[in-house]
């Protein structure tokens, strides 16, 4: 059972890392509050619905200073 918990945590870490990368490529940064929610998700303390709900309630990424073309 420990192996499956470790595998699930790794899967969640990879998903969050992928999302961070995509957000960065779009010119956004992730707020500290959302990073905290992401860690709760990775640690298994909240599920995907709770994590997505946090993003949808204006806790999500803030634009960077990058100018758009």
Brief summary:
By secondary structure, the protein is mainly alpha-helical. It has helices spanning 2-25, 32-42, 48-59; strands at residues 28-29, 62-63.
% residues in beta strands: 5-15%
Query: Care to count the β-strands?
Result: 2
Within the largest sheet, what's the order of strands?
1-2
Helix content: 55-70%
Tell me the Rg in angstroms.
Answer: 13 Å
End-to-end distance, in Å? 50 Å
Average the pLDDT over all residues and give the rounded result.
Answer: 83
Order of helices and strands: HEHHE
Unreliable stretches covering 5 or more consecutive residues:
none
Structure in words:
68% of the residues lie in helices and 6% in strands. With 69 residues, it is mostly helical. It has a domain at 29-54. Strands 1-2 form a two-stranded antiparallel sheet. The radius of gyration is 13 Å and the shape is globular. The N and C termini lie far apart (50 Å). The mean pLDDT is 83.
């Amino acid at each position: 059972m420990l192996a499956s918990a470790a595998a699930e945590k790794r899967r969640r870490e990879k998903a969050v890392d992928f999302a961070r990368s995509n957000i960065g490529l779009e010119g956004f940064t992730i707020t500290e509050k959302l990073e905290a929610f992401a860690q709760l998700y990775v640690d298994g303390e909240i599920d995907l619905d709770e994590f997505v709900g946090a993003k949808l309630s204006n806790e999500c990424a803030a634009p960077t200073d990058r100018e758009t073309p």
